[in-house]
Write a structure and sequence with these properties.
The complex is a heterodimer of chains A (256) and B (231).
Chain A: E1 4-13, E2 16-26, E3 31-35, H1 42-49, E4 57-62, E5 65-69, H2 78-85, E6 88-91, H3 103-113, H4 119-132, H5 148-160, E7 166-170, H6 178-193, E8 197-201, H7 205-211, E9 214-219, E10 222-227, H8 229-234, H9 239-255
Parallel strand pairs in A: 3-8, 3-9, 6-7, 7-8
Antiparallel strand pairs in A: 1-2, 1-4, 4-5, 9-10
Chain B: H1 3-39, H2 44-59, H3 62-77, H4 81-93, H5 98-125, H6 129-137, H7 142-172, H8 184-195, H9 199-225
Classes of the chains: A alpha/beta (256), B mainly alpha (231).
């Protein structure tokens, strides 16, 4: 059975239809890459999964549990949403670290407030996570003392501290200088090797191709193409996908 | 009158200036917070009422507000509460001006609470949406997000504008002499009227300057202490 099941998600902002019925599922341990031009709805989809936006229609299931069902009011109350969010972790484009806390405190804050474990347990766990993302020497640095890439890695550790079932990334390298994207992508690759289930919205085509198990290409609020990286990148069925990939390829060549 | 005698006489008034300063700060600063929240309320009537109150209080001279608080109970309800309090406190405790001082404290607290509320509102609204969202996706409650994430960043941002208001406040206390409260400028005016001494009026400036100097040092320390992070 699929770990994540998303059915017919629709979302409007005013009169604009941003998501026009999104269906997909994801197996445990799989990495899903969502690509597409800006305005295609990929970020909105991710925000719906993390309940930062409430979808107008649709169902979201994780394992046996229905987290969201637009026809079931029980799943829409604040407390249910807060609990259900914990199934997902989200890493933002601009990190959104808490500036007044050190790297270590950023990671321990939520487990502490949610009384997940004892203080020493949470701290141990946070140290391990920061070690895993290669920042064991930056524990007591404040975010403004870290580079963008380091901040993003702290943000990844922070998201992992609550052991979410599915970790989501919203263009995790878009706010970074090109020379810093590598260190963040390396961490994501490591997480894949650990068997983490992840959804990555990204503009890094090469990365999507090499890391993802499933690729979704979104255009104008629908899934235009879905398949393995080989299927989507080597043999796209839709004209829109081909046009998008051609554009992305040209941009890639220009940059390199 | 000797210099020392004048100093003592003015100091009697300066304690009252400091009393107005301290009470306004201690009551006005907390009161500003609910006003700020009302001004940001999603519930329109609450927001409008709050904004109109802030508009009136910030739009009318503080001196006028002192007159209004002091005289209106007498004019409207034929009950000059504050003069009666004056007499009551003098008769029972031999304390002078107590009723008038209370009127001044009410006017000052209301006035400064409104100014503070706008500083708080600006500070709260300046925190990026991403900070709230980061808290939400970590499963934190709204109140945890505000107390543990937002608040300190807001405090860091509002310290400079609050310092400004606090420094203005000590000087504004001189307005209390419009209803003959014996704060320091009033004391100096009495000397001018009864002893034909004008220089104490200028000398009051020294008291303000010294106190503002002290405030500047303290507020600068607070600002420095909070500067270890950049939001």
């Amino acid at each position: 059975m699929a770990l994540l099941e998303v059915k017919n998600i629709k979302k409007n902002f005013g009169k604009t239809e941003v998501l026009k019925g999104i269906d997909f599922s994801l197996e445990e341990g799989q990495v899903l890459a969502i690509i597409g031009s800006s305005g295609s709805g990929k970020t909105t989809l991710l925000r719906c999964l993390n309940f930062l936006e409430q979808a107008d229609e649709g169902v979201i299931r994780v394992g046996e549990q229905t987290l969201f069902d637009s026809s079931d009011k029980v799943t829409l109350n604040d407390e249910a949403i807060r609990q259900n969010r914990l199934n997902f972790g989200l890493v933002f484009q601009n990190f959104n670290l808490f500036p007044q806390y050190t790297a270590l405190q950023n990671v321990t804050l939520a487990p502490t407030l949610l009384k997940k474990g004892t203080a020493p347990e949470n701290e141990d766990n946070a140290r391990n996570l920061l070690d895993k993302v290669g920042l064991s020497d930056k524990l007591s640095n404040y975010p403004n003392q870290l580079s963008g890439g380091q901040q993003q890695r702290v943000a990844i550790a922070r998201a992992l501290a609550l052991s979410p079932k599915i970790l989501c990334f919203d263009e995790p390298t878009s706010a970074l200088d090109p020379e810093l994207t590598g260190e963040v992508l390396r961490v994501i690759r490591d997480l894949k090797n650990d068997g983490r289930t992840m959804i990555v919205v990204t503009h890094e085509m090469a990365f999507a191709k090499s890391v993802a198990d499933v690729v979704i290409y979104m255009a104008e609020g629908v899934i235009e193409e879905m398949g393995t990286p080989a299927e989507v990148f080597e043999n796209p069925q839709s004209e829109k996908t081909r046009a998008f990939l051609r554009g992305a390829l040209e941009e890639y060549k220009e940059n390199s | 009158m000797s210099f020392v005698e004048v100093t003592k006489y003015l100091l009697d008034g300066f304690w009252i200036s400091l009393l107005i300063f301290a009470v306004t700060l201690l009551c006005g600063a907390p009161l500003g917070l609910p006003i700020a929240f009302c001004s940001m309320s999603r519930f329109k009537p609450v927001r409008y009422v709050s904004k109109v109150i802030v508009w009136i209080v910030r739009g009318v001279p503080l001196m006028l507000q002192i007159f209004i608080i002091f005289y209106v109970p007498g004019l409207l309800f034929d009950k000059p509460i504050f003069s009666e309090l004056d007499r009551y406190f003098f008769k029972t405790y031999q304390i002078k001006d107590a009723g008038r001082i209370i009127a001044v404290l009410i006017a000052f607290t209301l006035n400064y609470a409104c100014y503070f509320s706008e500083i708080y509102r600006g500070g709260i609204e300046s925190i990026s949406k991403g900070q709230y969202e980061a808290g939400y996706v970590l499963g934190l409650t709204k109140s945890q997000i505000f107390r543990k994430i937002i608040l300190k960043q807001v405090i860091q941002r509002i310290v400079p504008p609050m310092s400004n208001e606090i420094i203005t406040l000590i000087k504004d206390t001189a307005l209390a002499n419009c209803i003959v409260v014996s704060e320091i400028v009033m004391q100096a005016k009495k000397l001018a009227a009864t002893k034909a001494l004008v220089w104490p009026l200028f000398y009051t400036g020294v008291f303000y300057l010294l106190f503002v100097g002290l405030l500047t040092i303290i507020l600068g320390k607070v600002e420095k202490k909070l500067s270890y992070f950049r939001s």
